[in-house]
Amino acid sequence: IDDLTSQDLKGTRVLVRSDLNVPLDDARTITDDGRVRASVPTIKSLSDAGAKVIVVAHLGRPKGAPEDKYSLRPVVARLSELLGKEVAFAEDTVGESATAVVEGLGDGDVALLENLRFNPGETSKDENERGEFADKLAAFADAFVSDGFGVVHRKQASVYDVATRLPHYAGGLVGSEVEVLKRLTEDPQRPYAVVLGGAKVADKLAVIENLMQTADRLLIGGGMAYTFLKAQGHEVGSSLLDAEKVETCKGFLESAKERGVEIVLPVDTVIAPEFSADVETSVVPVSEIPADQMGLDIGPESQALFAEKLADCKTVFWNGPMGAFEMAPYAAGTKAVAQALVDVTSGGGLTVVGGGDSAAAVRQLGFSDDRFGHISTGGGASLEYLEGKTLPGIQILAD
Ligand code: 3PG
Known about the structure:
The protein has helices at 2-5, 34-48, 73-83, 96-103, 120-123, 127-139, 172-185, 205-211, 225-231, 246-259, 300-311, 332-346, 356-364, 380-387, 392-398, and strands at residues 13-17, 52-56, 87-90, 110-113, 143-146, 168-170, 192-196, 217-220, 262-264, 268-272, 282-285, 294-298, 315-319, 350-353, 374-375. The protein is of the alpha/beta class. It has a six-stranded parallel sheet, with helices on both faces. A six-stranded parallel sheet has the order 9-8-7-13-14-15, with helices on both faces.
């Protein structure tokens, strides 16, 4: 982006793809504005250079047509506040409202267009359909800046196709995210540990396979741990279990042993009869989970074990909560891991929190962003980067 902002951009219309996919509560209030804040520096630098800035983004997964609950309108006020200037809002993405808003922009002005995914062309698998939509977006601008790191793993019109139609630049956020993630994949300082959590083991299998080539230790908690515990021969009661993946997990445990990668699993777990904050909980060793109880967080011994395994690390990547942290009785495991990362940061190590959910979790638990080396705005995108996959939104910029 420096190539662009070092020029006088007065009179230049710049289309910026940001990731403003923020969590909203029932009243449509933003509950974590991390992605909006992370998007501001790029937008501001273009506006300061005199450009007419047209921001495009998605929210949620609407099915190619407008739906009130997915409108980007709640984001516009926060973006204006953070930028310190009024951001114009277009009620559609490429229709009459967008055209009028874009035509009305003066030098340094900023506009946000309505949710890209209200248009079927944005996410279409058909290249022509995507291309038609990308043509309309490109017609608004003279240059394109890709800054939505959270979506660079999607081959979508505003991420990929539009870059083939305009002079294109990597935004500051995409640049800094890639720089940090490169340090994890290319030459991490060792010991290098990866902590994985979250509910779905199936989503993480490819990344685990890839990480076995680079990481020294893999710590696994959250809902996904129970499939690994089952693979170790434990009964997991009514905990989350992906029965189809037990054999794959068994294979991972064996191949980790052969490669000298240490896999660390919980040794105790907080159990409850159901997924609720208002039931009696207890802590048991993972070998003693009763048939009618489910594990909802890693237990205190596991917290101490995970902290010990992270204490001497020089590099740590973390994706996914250790338990159902939204409910107070099951938040201690996630909090303990967050604290262990904070300690590594204080000791001079590099800590990276990946993923919108993990980022929201640490903030909700009271940790400020500056206590970690880097909080990635990309969940799927950062995991796919670590998997070694080609990310379409990065590849097209490099091309
Ligand atoms: C995310 O939330 O990870 C990004 O905004 C991408 O959203 P998507 O998974 O709906 O494509």
